[in-house]
From TrEMBL:
PANTHER family: DTDP-4-AMINO-4,6-DIDEOXYGALACTOSE TRANSAMINASE (PTHR30244:SF34), TRANSAMINASE (PTHR30244). It holds the Pfam family DegT_DnrJ_EryC1. Keywords: Aminotransferase, Pyridoxal phosphate, Transferase. The keyword Transferase applies. GO terms for molecular function: dTDP-4-amino-4,6-dideoxygalactose transaminase activity; pyridoxal phosphate binding. GO terms for biological process: polysaccharide biosynthetic process. It comes from the Bacteria. The keyword Signal does not apply. This is 4-keto-6-deoxy-N-Acetyl-D-hexosaminyl-(Lipid carrier) aminotransferase. The active site is at K183 (proton acceptor). SUPFAM superfamilies: PLP-dependent transferases (SSF53383). The modification N6-(pyridoxal phosphate)lysine is found at K183. Belongs to the DegT/DnrJ/EryC1 family.
Amino acid sequence: MRKIDFHKIYLSGNEKKYIEDALNKGNLSGDGFYTKKVSEFLENKFDLIKVLMTTSATHALEMAAQLIDLKEGDEVIMPSFSFSSTANAVIKTGAKPVFAEVKLNNFNLDPADFESKITARTKAVIPVHYAGISCEMKEIKKIAKKNNIYIIEDAAHAVNSFYQGKAAGSMGDFGCYSFHGSKNFVSGEGGAIIINSDQHKLIEKAEIIREKGTNRSSFLRGEIDKYNWVGKGSSYLPSDILMALLLAQLEQIDYITKQRRQIFEFYNQHLEKFLNEDFLEIIPQIPEDRQSNYHLYYLKLKNQKIRDFILKKLRKKGIETAFHFQPLHASPMGKKLGYQKRDLQLTNDIAASMLRLPIYPGLSAADLNYIIAELRNIFLEIKQAGV
Ligand SMILES: *Cc1c(COP(=O)(O)O)cnc(C)c1O
C-alpha cells in the first residue's frame, strides 16, 4: 500500500545555501539583506506599492486592524468560513467580527450578504480568497466604496493568485499574505502586509507598529540619526534567516505553481464525470477572469455522511485527506460572541461536506493515479451500495 501525505513542503534546493549565507552575513534579526530581497521580489512580481514582511499572516491582519484604528464599537464583516486569525485580529482591538455567508461556487464571501450586514458601525470588510481563487472583488469594492468601508484582503491562501490581472492582496486598502509551512511558498512561519497606498504617513505608521513602536525603519534608511519610541507597536518583523529560506522558495514560484496546476487539472479531468452522480456536487472551477495559485483541491459531497465515508476509506488506503475550516460562527468562541450554529446554514453545509485532496509538487504520477483509482472504487461502491 502507498502512503500519501496530505501535505509536504517543497524545497527548491537553495534554501540551505541562503540560510548559511544569512548566518555568515551575521545579521539574524529583522530587515536585513534577505528581508529586503523578498519584499522587493513581491513588490516587483505583483506590482505592489509597499510590502512589509511579517512573522505571519495573523500578524499582518493584526497590523491592518491597527492601521485603520479599529476599536470597540466598530464592526468588521468577514466570512465565517475562515481561519481564527481573520477574526482574532478584529477582536484584539475590541471591535466585533460580523460573520457573513460565502457563495457556493468558490466558497468566497457573498457580496450580497456582505452588503446586507452593513450597519452604521461597519468599518471594514475582510474578504478571504479561499483556496487561491479570488473573491468577486469588483462587487466587493463597489459596495465598500459606496459605504465608506475599508477592505483588508486575507490573501493567506492567495500568494500568486490574480483577479482581472490584479494580484490578490493588491486590490483592497491592505493585503495579508502567509508563508506558513502549510501554504504554497513557505518560511515555516511568516507573512507580509501589503499597503496599497503611497501615503507616506500610513506607511510610516505601519513601520512603527511593526518595529515595537519605534521609528527604527527611518533610522535604518538613514533618514534620522537615532531612533526612538514614538507610538504604539509590537514586534512583527521576521528574522532574516527565515527570509533567506523564503527567497529560495519565491525564486521557484512559477515552477511550484505549475506543478500544482498540473495536479489540479489532473483531478478535475478525472473527477468531472462524477459530477453527474448525485453524491458529488462540486469540484473547484476557476472563473475566466481569475488566475489561481492552486492552493487547495477540494470536493464538495452531497452530505457529511458521504464525506466522512470517503475520508475514512481513503485513509484506510494510506491516502491522507482533510476537511477544512470549522465555521467561526459555530465555534466555541463564535458562541461566546452570541452566534448560533443555525445562523449561517450554507457555511455549515459546506464545512460538513467538503473534503480536500493532497496537492503539492512532490506528488508523483503514480501517487496521483493511485488516488484517482481509489476514489473511483469508493465512488462505485457508493453508487452501488449507497452510504
Ligand atoms: C493560514 C491562514 C491564516 C494565518 O496565516 P499564518 O501565517 O499562519 O498566521 C490566516 N487566514 C487564512 C484564511 C489562513 O488560511
